[in-house]
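Annotated sample (chain length 117).
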Amino acid sequence: MDDEDGVRQALRSQLKETHVIEEAATGEEALAFLENNRPDLVILDITLPTLSGWDVCKRLKDDPATKTIPILMLTGSASQAKEGHGWVSGVADYLHKPWDRDFMLQTVQHLLDTKNP
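Output written by the structure step:
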């Protein structure tokens, strides 16, 4: 989930050959989708309009139905304070923008393998 179409397009093009991709541009869209769907992984931008990625993460981790879904947080900032907030919030890993394609694919696969050993 990312509010920037270019970021969503880049992720889609890099993941579509091996993964089913669903997209949301806002935190509200993401939560609405997750009410009835349980993806294996959520890629979530920190900065979303109206409802931040932190807020979405908190709601997912507070809900017994979604708390085990790993969250890969996208960030344009390398701020340690933001990362510390995420580890406390249950974020599984971070991907910094702009990302290296191979590193992103390895990270996604690692999180999926960890969830489904």
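Annotation: The mean pLDDT is 83.
Annotation: The helical segments are 5-15, 27-36, 53-62, 80-89, 101-115.
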